[in-house]
Amino acid sequence: MHVAILSARTGWHTDQLCRALAERQHTGRVLPYEGLVARLDAGRRVTGGLSSENAAVLDADAVLARIIPDGSLEQIIFRVDVLHWIEERGVPVMNSPRAIERSVDKFYTTALLQEAGLPTPETVVCEGVGDAMAAVRAMGDVIVKPIFGSMGHGMVRVSDPDVAFRVLRSLQQVRAVFYVQRAVDHGGRDVRVFVVGGTVLGAIERRAPGGEWRTNVSGGGSARPFDLPPAWAELALRAAAAVGADYAGVDLLPSREGAVFVLEVNGIPGWHGLQQATGLDVAGAIVEHLVGRVPARRPAAELPA
Question: What CA–CA distance (Å, rounded) separates 159 from 183?
């Protein structure tokens, strides 16, 4: 089997995926989204009309969709539309473009989690400063987040209305959508659960560095293996299913009062911290699940070297 790995760049995660493929007698090639070329000819049926770096993407047995690079609105839409087209041509894409669209948007993710009956922190999403300020005053201690973003970038925690107003006015200048969420007293800890194919692969507890409330390992937080209670595992599985993700990093936020909230579902998750803390072969689990999704009747094909 040959897998095309669409990504912003090569790195540790793509190396892990290629290693896991090779260990299972499959091949993989990392291709950049920026190099995608779609050739459309109205006079005949399109065959092999999509390439990147001269490799025919539609000849792959499956596509692993990794980090989509920053770009203009047109560029982002084109790249996601390409994933839809690949999938519609019968090539399995993981995660699916639909799951990526759902999970990359914090508003959409939170709405889907709520519709699925999962506990989420109180949240208000709006475009008007007045509506956002009303939410700040009603909740008291809030976190203002960008709709799109990861690893804690762009998040601001505020409890003073004057400070909140200045933050919101600054965001208004760049036509931001205001995502205002009630801050949960979590004691500087959260839990990242890694789900693959409807099964919990493993979990870690992340702790924020001293004086910080963000727990992201990339921002200096620490991680250790965590023995997930069955009820928490069920929350993670339901959250991944709510966005339709084959594999996902689900963030659970246990409060000091004992409640557990589903905070986020990452549909293009990293797993460096999880693998370091637990020793799990995450890439291997992802590859094995992907292989199970490829129809046996599909002939093996190799992309040009």
Answer: 9
DSSP 22-77: HHTT-EEEEEEGGGEEE---TTS--SS-EEETTEEGGGSSEEEE-PPPP--HHHHH
Q: What pTM does this model have?
A: 0.89
**Residues for the chain: how many in total?**
305
The model's pLDDT over 95-147, given as tens digits with 9 standing for 90+, comes to 999 999 999 999 999 999 999 999 999 999 999 999 999 999 999 999 999 88
d(CA 244, CA 237): 10
Q: Report which residue type is found at 294.
A: V
Phi-psi region of 94 (alpha: psi -120 to 50; beta: other; left: phi over 0): beta
Instruction: Determine contact, residues 132/178, Cβ cutoff 8 Å.
Output: yes
Residue that wins the pLDDT comparison between 15 and 155: 15
Contact indicator for 217, 242 with CB cutoff of 8 Å: no
